[in-house]
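INTERNAL AUDIT FORM
Audit reference: QA-55
Scope: verify that the stored structure record matches its stored sequence.
Auditor: D.O.
Record contents follow.
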Amino acid sequence: MAEEDEQAVRAAVDGELRLLDPEVRADPARVRELLDPQFTEIGASGRRWDAESVLTVTSGGAVSADSPVEVGEMSGTVLAPGVVHLTYVTEHRGLRALRSSVWRLTGAGWRLYFHQGTPDCRQGTAGSRPGTPAG
C-alpha cells in the first residue's frame, strides 16, 4: 500500500475508534466533528439514521464507560482518493456485530459518511441503537 493510502486508512481508523470512545460519544460537539453532514447509517434493525438522530441518541449515553466496545479485525482500503472503506467486528455486552464504514476527506478533515452494523448471525441478534455495536 502506498504511503498516502496508509495515511488515509490510519486517519479513518483513528476517527472510527474515536467515535467508539465513550468520552467522545458523550460530547455531541466532538461527535459532530467526526460525522459528515450527509452521514447516514443503516442499523441492524433496518432503520435509517442521520447525523442529528445519532447525536440525539449517543449524547444520551448509548455507550458507557462501564460497558466498552471491543473492536477487532479492523482493516481498511482506499476506494478512491479521499475515500476509505473500513470493516471490523465489535462486541458489546456479549453481542457481536460486523461493521462497515465509509470515510471521506472533506475541507474540515476526515468525516464518517456511511456506516452499517449487521448482527453476527453466529452470535444471536444485536440491538438497534445507532452508533452502538448493535446499530
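Auditor finding: record pair retrieved intact. The chain has a mean pLDDT of 83.
Action required: none
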